Structure formats: structure tokens, C-alpha cells
Amino acid sequence: MRADAVRNLETVLTTGARMLADDPAASIGAIAAEAGVDRRTVYRHFASRDELLAAVYDARLSAVEEAVDRARLREAPVPVALHRYVEGIIEVNRKWPVELTRMRAEPSIQDRRGRMIAEVDAFLARATAAGFFRADVPEGWVSDVLIQLLHLASKQPSSAAEAADVLVGTLVRGVGAA
């Protein structure tokens, strides 16, 4: 694809994510208009609204996978990996605000999402075993708190790095072992 076509596609997808997060019934025409492209441009890439929605979910999941990879959850020191992960996911949530709940029935999405959840759960278990998080909280509690804090932090007006600082500080002081 030409560079302008790639930019148009990226703009359509990110605009679609934002608009669909606000209004799950947003039309292709409305998304195209907001993205500043002709409706036919969208239809050249996506035969239907469902195809556009699937592409938005795919792009969001790809961004999550990249954030998890960059965090180096398996090998980086726990505080470093946690901050990288949190900052990366805040950036993903801001760029791709559409929720995955509507696509969870799609097996390929479900499998990819499941792999990311398992990766983060393994990291949280490693962090707990290393004494970074308290072991006396109910199973899954740290993960549940982290997810909720990510949702809150993603809506803050500060930079992703600043929001990550606040989130990690809140998480560590709330369920941290020290």
C-alpha cells in the first residue's frame, strides 16, 4: 500500500475504535466522515461494518501483544516490567478504546486474549513469589485490581508515563508486600 493509503487505514481504524467505544452502533459513513475519508475508501478495505469492527479488534489485540512483549514480563525485574506493562496498556487503551467484550465469542480473538491474560497472570505470580505483592489476598485479586486501575488510569489526562507512575504506586501500596 502507498503511504497515504496506510495512513488512511490507520486513521479509519483508530477513529472507528474511538467512535465505536462511544457508540457501538456508529455507522461506516459516520466513521469515514470523522476520519476525513470518503465512505468508499472504507468500503475498499472492509466489505461490511462487521469486517471493520473485526479489524479494529485485531489492531487493538496486536497493540496489546506488542505492549506485553515490550514489557518483558518473564525476564525484566518486576518493578521495571510492571511499569512497562502498565504504561504500554494505558497507551493501547487510549489509542484503541473499544472494549473486547463484544468479540469474545470469536475463537481467534478469544485465543489471543487468553494468551495475553495467561502471560500477565504468570508475571503476577512471579511478582508475588518474589515478594513484590502480598500472597495473603484472594487468588486473582491483584489481577482484578490491576485491570480496574488500568481502566481508571487510561482516562486520566496525564501522560501515559505519569498515569503509570500513579497506577503502580497505588497498586504497590494497596497490595504490595512492603
Question: What does it look like?
Answer:
The chain is mainly α. The protein folds into 2 domains: 1-47, Arc Repressor Mutant, subunit A, CATH 1.10.10; 61-175, Tetracycline Repressor, domain 2 (Orthogonal Bundle). Helices cover 72% and strands 0% of the residues. The chain contains 8 helices and no strands. Helix 1 packs across helix 4 (49-71) and helix 4 packs antiparallel against helix 5 (78-95). The longest helix is centred in the middle third of the chain and has 23 residues, at 49-71. The chain is elongated. The termini are far apart. The model has no long low-confidence stretch (mean pLDDT 90).
How would the blueprint of this fold be written?
Elements: H1 3-22, H2 28-35, H3 39-45, H4 49-71, H5 78-95, H6 107-129, H7 141-154, H8 160-175
SSE order, one letter for each helix or strand: HHHHHHHH
Strand portion, in percent? under 5%
* Unreliable residue runs: none
Number of E-type strands: 0
Rg over C-alpha atoms, rounded to the nearest angstrom: 18 Å
Distance between the termini: 52 Å
Reported CATH architecture of the largest domain = Orthogonal Bundle
* Tally of alpha and pi helices: 8
* Total count of domains: 2
The helical percent reads: over 70%
Mean pLDDT: 90
Overall outline: elongated
What is the CATH topology of the largest domain?
Tetracycline Repressor, domain 2
| CATH top level class name of the largest domain | Mainly Alpha
- Helix and strand content put the structural class at mainly alpha
The H-level CATH homologous superfamily of the largest domain, spelled out, is Tetracycline Repressor, domain 2
| Main sheet makeup | none
